[in-house]
Fold this protein.
Amino acid sequence: MEAGGSHVLMKFTIEVGRYNPEGTYADDAKQGAPYPAPWASSPPRRYQSYEVDLPEHAVVLDALIEIREYQDESVAVRCACRSAICGSCAMWVNGHAHLACKSKLQEFTKDGKTRVESPPSMPVIRDLVWDMKPFWDNHRRVTPWLENKPLPPPMQEYRVTNEAMEELIQEVTCISCGCCLMDCESFAVNKDFMGPHALAKAYRYAADPRDDETQKRLGEYSQQGGVWDCTHCFECVQQCPKGVEPLEQILKLRRMAVNAGYTHNAGTRHADAFAESVKHSGRLNELTLLPKSVGFFNVLGQLATLPSAFNMIRAGKLPPIIHKTIPGVKRIKAIFDRVGGRFK
Amino acid sequence: MKVAFHPGCVSKGACPELYVSATKIAGTLGLELQELTEAPCTGAGVLSEQNPDLGDSLNALTLAMAESMGGNLMTICSTCQGVLSSVNHTFEKKPERLEKANKTIADQGYTYKGTTKVKHLLWMLFEDIGVDKLKSVIKRKLTGLKIAPFYGCYILRPSDSLGLKERPERKTYLEQLIELLGAERVDYTGSGKCCGFPMLTFNRDKSLAMGGNHILEAKEKGADAMVTPCPLCHLNLDGQQPDAALAISRPLETPIFHLPQLLGLALGFSPEELRLNHHVVSTKRALEKVELKV
């Protein structure tokens, strides 16, 4: 109990993932280093435990500041506002991206401890401070500013409707903390992927009526590394501390790109083949989905799928050659017609 | 217990062993499955992506069919679970979307009132059937078998539409089940991650690397096999495993069990009855650990 008796102090154990680029921790690799993902350039680290006494409502950042100020000044941690606004204290807490200033220790204590570390898919500078270079490099790839239409006449201004701006509000609340990118499953294996943060920002400008380069933008976002490289895993939606839901913005961009005519890609072919199959039989036709998605004239792509196809056939897992329709499929066709078809 | 049953396209297509094993074990578990033979594909998120009204309407139809039968709607596919839960959640938060979908399906003789509860078999085991019942029907303990759980995305995220905030234990059911069946659970970081399947046609190499990494991690942590409640994850982790091994240049050879197959073994069914001889990656070595042959 504190002097005033207003707060109950609790004992928390914090495991800090330590990394020093100068190689001070020579035995890092031997001391319980996490599983080194083959795709990651994650350097070896060691985990160091600290015990702190803090009020029951304390957050992870409180613990880290307590450790740095009173126990071990060598622990490197980045923070500023402490109010979930600046985003600088984003880190991995118990294996997922969180803002340390928003993560209540009580909620994150698991098996008596809370583990904090830099995300393994990002380069680490020291301890909990990770390099945001990949984040900002990808951010710049989407031209994160408005490309102006011709200037309005003197003494006038661009006017946009409330409805148009309300459509952008969700993305505008992004604080560029990087939580979505550090847990992005696609980015973890594909450094060319623009990432959820950048694509959410891309939507913010592509959908802004004051932007004059929407068509060009959509063309760029439809290339390799763009909207179709998202694996739809919802990690960015789950981890975003501000409710931006980057995946939702990526899906809106996909719709915009298809409507703008950027349909010569596997993503559009996949959606098209999927919808066609469901419309005609009520079910997914797995036998035709893959070749249609890859593209019939994409010989190399088709050849690449052959070994897996043979393995599946050998195991007796080939989808039925004659694709059966569900009873009452007319109902499904009627629904497709009523809602305006597969693309809207 | 009567349940409306939506098996999903994949269990009727490339993963018939899932359908066979699920229907085999249902009776033992006291489930009377009433299959929704006229229910369409959920769209796996792909249909709603280009036309949200389409996803809403098709899934409202399925939910209404289940509603008219009473009781829960049971899935055996994480992806179906995720999509149907998400649509249900949307209808709850945005009644105007439900109203619109109902207008679309009204001609077909259906109206969805919003009462259907969608539950994966995995959830039903703990929430409807119960641990006591499960313990009473186990005939063969899987002692000696080390199993790594693999949930797949759509049964874990987004957590609000899946009810994981109210029921956080749903994130641990696979681990609990593995232990309940007498097997040893293998903890690893990849259990809740993406198998890579949604990217398979867009970016094949990265998709294979994604799945391959998780298998490799589980294997290096000692897993004899992995178990998944999602047939799409199964397609990538089992069906593509030889290619995934090439993609990450590491041997894998780790069998991937469907949830009802693992459960079925403990309930006393033979590997053949559960079609464990229809996997790309042989289940033979794993089964030998529990003195079974396939």
Summary: Chain A touches chain B through 74 residues (CB under 8 Å).
